[in-house]
Amino acid sequence: MTSTDGNLVKEPEASVNDTVVVNSVSGDEEDDIPMLSSHTLEALKEFLAEQNQAAAGAEEAVDVDGEEVSLVTENWNLSQFWYNRQTAETIAAEVAALSETLISPRVICIACPTLYAYLKKIVPGVPAQLLEFDKRFEQYGDDFTFYDYNQPEDLPLSLKHSFPIVVADPPYLSKECLEKIAETVKFLSKPGESYLLLLTGEVQTLLAAELLGLGPCGFRPEHSSKLGNEFRLFTSYDPGVRLGGWQHDI
Predict the structure, then answer these.
(1) Can you give the pTM of this predicted structure?
(2) Per-residue confidence at 193, pLDDT binned at 50, 70, 90?
(3) φ, ψ for residue 158 (rounded to 5)?
(4) Which side of the chain, N or C, has fewer Cβ within a 10 Å radius?
(5) Burial of 149 by CB count in 10 Å (0-12 exposed, 13-18 middle, 19+ buried)?
(6) Angstrom distance (rounded) from CA 5 to CA 81
């Protein structure tokens, strides 16, 4: 929910003269120094720029019941780490189960575009919105709203108190980030009948309970890229037998 998660780091440009020394040596080895002409260097720089641009806009396709779920490539500079298929499908299935209990189901994903993409394939009948900092997701049209967690309530008033299901995945494991995400959650949640799911590091267990009254579930989210931090799923409700149930001993 994402959430939650900024410019790409630009590689330093080499100085272009008639020739460029690749390795610096001295003495009698000078005659063996490999040299690149300015034309060759420019061609190399152009190729690398094209590769970086392609990587930034590339999409990964995951097959779900015979249909592909397209995901843009992770941008680690924005702290983007996509869920693996099992995690995305498990959370999407939980959203589907919660939706069946609601007269007018509606879900918003805070900084968790992987979940949004799976929801659109698995439960397309449930209206879903995505809040994201990365403007590549403008491809989702009206379902996309730009979101900077540093401005937690800088959102359209039409979204205020409109969502009975809120899923959040803060982009950073800091106290400040979770505090601001919590403000956004309260802005978006529909009073009286809302369900909150939070995916974040296990280190946030006590703060998640303090800020939002959440309990940890037995199900443990995983990412396509192996991360060093242990992640947990927290909910505002007891899921019963789903999601491994609440872990009351933590």
Answers:
(1) 0.72
(2) confident
(3) -65, -20
(4) C
(5) buried
(6) 10
Question: What are all long-range contacts of 175-179, with beta carbons under 8 Å and residues at least 24 apart?
Answer: 175/207, 177/4, 177/149, 178/4, 178/204, 178/207, 178/208, 178/211, 179/207, 179/211
Cβ neighbors of 249 (< 8 A, separation 6 or more) are: none
Spatial distance between the Cα atoms of 157 and 219, rounded to a whole number of angstroms: 34
Structure confidence at residue 22 as a pLDDT band (50, 70, 90): very low
At 8, give phi and psi (nearest 5°).
-65, 145
Tokens at 73, concatenated: 């490539």
The closest alpha carbon to 91, from 70, 75, 76, 110, belongs to: 110
Name the residue among 180, 174, 224 with its Cα closest to residue 204. Answer: 174
Strands (DSSP E) found in the chain:
19-21, 35-37, 59-64, 67-72, 107-110, 128-132, 144-146, 165-168, 195-201, 215-216, 231-235
- How far, rounded to the nearest angstrom, does the alpha carbon of residue 198 sit from its chain's CA centroid? 13
Sequence-ordered alpha helix ranges (H) in 77-112: 85-99
- pLDDT the model gives residue 17: 40
Beta strands 35-37 and 19-21: pairing type? antiparallel
**E strands in 124-194:** 128-132, 144-146, 165-168
Decide if pLDDT at 150 tops 90. Answer: yes
Mean pLDDT, residues 126-150:
94
Question: Residue 228's Cα: distance from chain center in Å?
Answer: 16
The pLDDT of 175-195, averaged and rounded, is: 96
- What is the end-to-end Cα distance of the chain in Å, rounded? 23
Matching residue, tokens 């610096």:
24
Mean pLDDT score, 205-232: 88
Q: Which two tokens stand for residue 13?
A: 């440009």
